Amino acid sequence: MSTELKLSDTGADLDPHSVCEPQSTAPSAGIDIRPIPRISVQGFCLSDNTSRTIEIAAEDRRMAKAHVKVHMGGIPAAIEFYAQAPTPNLIIVEAGNERSALVADLERLAEYCDAGTKVIVIGGINDVSLYRDLIHQGVSEYLVAPIDVYQLIGSIGELYGDPDTEPLGRTIAFFGVKGGCGSSTVAHNSAWALARNFENEVSVADFDLPFGTAGLDFNQDPLQGVLEAVSSPERLDETFLDRILSKCSEHLSLLASPASLERTYDYGESAFDGLIDTMRSCTPTIVLDVPHVWNGWTKNVLVSADEVVIVAEPDLANLRNAKNVVDILKQLRPNDRLPQLVMNRVNVPKRPEIKPDEFASALGLPAPLIIPFDPQLFGTAANNGQMIAELDAKHSVSALFSELAQQVSGRSDTYKTKRTGLNSLLSKLIGKTA
Fold first, then answer.
1. pTM of the model
2. Cα–Cα dist 73/368, whole Å
3. What is the mean pLDDT of residues 321-338?
4. For the chain, how long is the longest CA-to-CA vector?
5. Which is nearest to 207 in space by CA: 154, 153, 275, 150?
6. Does residue 165 register a pLDDT over 90?
7. For 178-222, what is each residue's pLDDT tens digit?
8. In Å, how far from its chain's centre is CA 8?
9. Buried-most residue among 16, 24, 112, 351 (CB within 10 A)?
10. Measuring CA to CA, how many Å separate 339 from each of 176, 314, 349?
11. Residues 148 and 25: beta-carbon distance below 8 Å
12. pLDDT tens-digit profile of 284-314?
């Protein structure tokens, strides 16, 4: 994913005259509206009517998976808020009736929008040319106030239900280069940090079917999970997936492994493709906990992931295995970013170790993230079914997982100045108002 940020890469090419005529508020108006996937939505309103409309929409059955928060203050409030916080999947902002003010405010807001964030603008300017320009240049949708519930939900559904748009979800695969190196612990804590720090929806899929630990780590005991999903591909859709996901926290869900030896788990190379595709269609971030085995399907999962994190300990066997993994991934993913290396259990007393920087240099990878050996901390968290940040949020290891979450999220540093595809449009519109 490019690090260059913009409000949206796509916009629905709708009939511009639709902005002039609000949809009917009759119950039949919502029959064909698509369900909204598991996304985070934040609204910044100027009027109580718009605020109430968004709140009512959030209670609609089609919005059941979405996480919605409503603020007052319009675009200026959004600018102030996102100057210190990451942006959600969708921002809804209400603007005033002045074209020049709308353009200027959007330009400032764009500086703080992460890549992939979509923006719906609700404004009082009923101008088809403005609508066309905003949609064409990157604003996801422009609605003329006053809006109704079905109009808003329908607009969101069009943004996230268009089959021509890219899948919503981004997959991050965690893989330990040697058994027992702590890859699952790193994956689960990173997923928890992603959900907490970015307040976006994250799903964890534990692909270690016989020995997975995600249920233990998150203190969950779900009756269904990955096994049911891959065993019944004909039933697999968003509704079925939503039924077998277990809720771990406000923004985090789990697809657990059975952790049972009552059967063997011999799957073909593409056995998990349908599950991953379904998860990508309805969840912004998917963390894949891939077991330390090498077969057709694990290779396929790693090769097809958007981001790969390999976890290793600083010894010779780990270095050999890591070299093999990195070499095959470089060969099969020539146009993708190099894997992120995490060195786990560093500085074990009396153990001869390879220095992390030398380890990474031998692999041709950037400097690794280093997690120190701390059996008391990790053992207590594991026994309690807690994440490190839940046990001790101020511990330095908790900050390391937040750093890793930032690196693999595909998001920008929220404190950096960001540019947007709206720049050329805004210059053009300002010229029109001069």
1. 0.74
2. 42
3. 93
4. 74
5. 275
6. no
7. 999 999 999 999 999 999 998 889 999 999 999 999 999 999 998
8. 15
9. 112
10. 12, 17, 28
11. yes
12. 999 999 999 999 999 999 999 999 999 999 9
The reported pLDDT for the residue numbered 379 is 96
Higher-confidence position of 60 and 71: 71
Sign of torsion over alpha carbons 20, 25, 31, 37 = positive
Q: Quick one: which of 314, 303, 393, 400 has its CA closest to 352?
A: 314
pLDDT tens-digit profile of 6-26? Answer: 444 333 333 433 444 333 334
Q: With CA atoms as reference, report the closest residue to 369 among 308, 307, 309, 303.
A: 309
C-alpha pair distances (Å), 119 with each of 87, 220, 268: 10, 35, 41
Residue partners of 63: CB distance under 8 A and separation at least 6: 36, 57, 153, 156
Neighbours of 382 (CB within 10 A): 16
Contact between 368 and 356 (Cβ < 8 Å): yes
Q: In 3D, which of 162, 158, 164, 166 has the Cα closest to residue 18?
A: 158
Residue with tokens 């030398």: 358
Q: Residue 144 pairs with which residues in a beta bridge? A: 123
Identify each DSSP E strand in 46-132 by its residue range.
67-72, 90-94, 118-123
Question: Token digits for 272?
Answer: 């998990």
